[in-house]
Amino acid sequence: MPTRLPAWPESGVWVKDDDRAWFEPLVRNLSHPALKYAQMLVLNTDVAQEIVQEAFARVWASAKTPSREDEFRRWLYRIIANLANDYHRRQAISGRASLPHASLVDPVEEVEQRDQRKLLLAAMKRLTPKARQAVYLRYFEDRSFAETAGVMGLPQVTVRVIVHRALATLRQRLASRRVDEVAV
Fold first, then answer.
1. CATH number of the domain enclosing 69
2. Are 24 and 87 within one domain?
3. How high is the mean pLDDT in each 10-residue block of the chain (184 residues)?
4. What radius of gyration do the chain's Cα atoms show?
5. Max CA-CA distance within the chain?
6. Could you give phi then psi for residue 113, rounded to 5 degrees?
7. Does residue 22 sit in the same domain as residue 66?
8. Around Cβ 25, how many Cβ atoms within 10 Å?
9. Other CB atoms closer than 10 Å to residue 11's CB: what's the count?
10. What is the DSSP annotation of 35-91?
């Protein structure tokens, strides 16, 4: 693990030294999955890119950043989730809803939405941010409940309940749209 040097001796603030050779490969490996994760949480590509950029900046600046990939990913994803929660909080305070409202369906769009993946993603967008986060980590990134709980900072049993309820909601929404075969 890199050594820590005092930035200003009287301040008590610590920064890592310049030995960051481990950082760049982790950024390269995790930037795309982190962006997909952020997009699922905020449902906006531009905002997701800003969140991921801010998350990597915070990870770089922190003296406590782990250098092992699994711990680094968990650390990074917690920061992304916190930034996404902040984004949703700001949206709620400003009075603008961040989730899309149902609108009249264009017949061309109706045909395109018959694709099962598009229907599933549309149903996912209607879940709460916490439910989306849990389902995304568990099934889209194939994380265990323990790993998902670690990223979300919740007890494993709580994550299991969130995922169970989210899957029930997804099944209900997909069934109501008369989808014959959607594997949830």
1. 1.10.1740
2. yes
3. 40 46 85 92 91 91 83 90 91 64 56 67 88 90 91 93 93 71 45
4. 19
5. 67
6. -75, -5
7. yes
8. 10
9. 8
10. HHHHHHHHS-HHHHHHHHHHHHHHHHH-TT---SHHHHHHHHHHHHHHHHHHHHHHH
The structure tokens 């809803």 sit at 97
Tokens of 75: 């650390």
**Rounded to whole angstroms, how far apart are CA atoms 137 and 144?**
8
User: Rounded to whole angstroms, how far apart are CA atoms 172 and 154?
Assistant: 26
Do residues 79 and 143 both lie within one domain?
no
Beta-ladder partners of 16? 4
* Listed residues 49, 69, 98: the one ending a domain: 98
Q: Out of 67, 98, 129, pick the residue that ends a domain.
A: 98
* Backbone torsions φ then ψ of 118, nearest 5 degrees: -65, -40
d(CA 101, CA 39): 18
For residue 42, give the nearest of 50, 32, 31, 54 by alpha carbon: 50
| Number of domains the chain is built from | 2
| Domain region containing 137 | 101-184
The reported pTM is: 0.59
